Predict the structure.
Amino acid sequence: NAGVTQTPKFRILKIGQSMTLQCTQDMNHNYMYWYRQDPGMGLKLIYYSVGAGITDKGEVPNGYNVSRSTTEDFPLRLELAAPSQTSVYFCASSPDRGRGSPLHFGNGTRLTVT
Amino acid sequence: AQKVTQAQTEISVVEKEDVTLDCVYETRDTTYYLFWYKQPPSGELVFLIRRNSFDEQNEISGRYSWNFQKSTSSFNFTITASQVVDSAVYFCALSERQANSGYALNFGKGTSLLVTP
C-alpha cells in the first residue's frame, strides 16, 4: 500500500517559471490537502479538497492553484515562481470529513526558487 | 481563529533524561481534536496520537505519554528515558473547521528536540 505519493522529491526553479507538484493517494480518501513548511514556522494550509471536483483555499493560497479531477490525484500548480515560494510542500489525505481523522502525509517536495 | 502554541523552540537533553514538550491551544469549539506528529531528520511526518476533547484520560504508549488538561487548554507530551532516536521536530495540531466544509489541521510551529549520547 503506497499511501500518499508526491513527486518530485526535489526541484529547483528559476523566478517566473511554472511547475506542478504531483500528489496521488491510493487509499480512496475523499479529503486531500496541501501544506507548506518553512523553517521554524510549522505547516501552513495552502489548499484543500473535500472530494473530486471540489477545492477551496486555505490560509496561504496566493501564488498557487489546484485541481481535483479524480479522487486519487490532487496536483498543486505554481504559475510564476517567486523566491517566497521556496519551501517544503506536503500533500496529505484523510478518509472522511470528521474532525478527528489524522492526516496521512506524503514525504514532501523540497522546492527552491532562485 | 484557533491557535496552537508551542513555546519551546528547541530543547536539548542528554540520553535517558525525561523531557516534556508543551502545547497550549485556543478554540471556541466545545468538541475538538488534538494531535501530535513527529518529524525525524529524514523529513517525513509521523502521526503519534489523537485526543478528543471529551476524553481527558492521560495516555501512555511505551516511553511516550500525553497529558491533556482541558482546564488549562494544554496537551503536553512527555518522553521518558529519552533516546537519540527521539531527536526530531514535534508538532502539536488542532483540528479546525474550514470556511466552506470539512476540517484541516492547524499546526503549532514545532519543538525541535535534540537528544545527545
User: Anything to note?
Assistant: The radius of gyration of chain A is 13 Å. The mean pLDDT of chain A is 94. Chain A has no helices and eleven strands.
